[in-house]
Amino acid sequence: MTEYKYISENTIEHLSLHDCDCTAMKLDGEELVFELEWIEVLATHPDNPFPQAHQSGKGRIVLHGAVIGQGELIKGEDDKTPITDISQVKGFEVLSFDEERTDGSFELSVLGIFSGVKKADYADYIEMKIRYSSSTVMFSELGEVSWFETFKQKEERK
Fold first, then answer.
1. CA-CA distance, 77 to 105, in Å (whole number)?
2. Whole-model pTM?
3. What 3 state SS string does the chain have?
4. Vertex 95, ends 11 and 40: CA angle to 5°?
């Protein structure tokens, strides 16, 4: 098991996961675990000492008390299949990972795409809505400045 240097509670709002690769998801009792190739850690995250977002190495997000309200694999435009075994969902690129705080809990909307060399034969997209009581975000290091920060700087120079 990977040991993580930075572990924070309820800090999903301080992340950007757009374009991040989710290598695996697993349901362990009432915990839903997302394994990620990297995480974009925003400047507002308590463990980011930099004035800009930075990319981490491998990361993990654990949703505690997770209940999947909706989970579908989508093939084409109209072929939707409910997710029955979360462990089979591997290798998707995150398009959106949006958290909302609700009355005493959280709700996460996830949209991902299976593409490129990791394209799944069973679906083009994954869409989920998950309610949970709390979350844990884990990563070990912060590397390069996040791609969108570099993009933003180039746009500001124009």
1. 32
2. 0.90
3. CCCCCEEEECCHHHEECCCCEEEEEEEECCEEEEEECCCEECCCCCCCCCCCCEEECCEEEEEECCEEEEEEEEECCCEEEECCCHHHCCCEEEEEEEEEEECCEEEEEEEEECCHHHCCCCCCEEEEEEEECEEEEEECCEEEECHHHHHHHHHHHC
4. 40
Find tokens 């290598």 and name the residue. 23
Query: What is the distance of C-alpha 110 from the center of its chain?
Result: 8
- The C-alpha atoms of residue 147 and residue 91 are separated, in whole angstroms, by 21
- Give pLDDT tens digits for 11-47: 999 999 999 999 999 998 999 999 999 999 999 999 9
pLDDT tens digits, residue range 118-127? Answer: 677 778 899 9
Look at phi and psi of residue 116 and say left if phi exceeds 0, alpha if psi is from -120 to 50, else beta. left
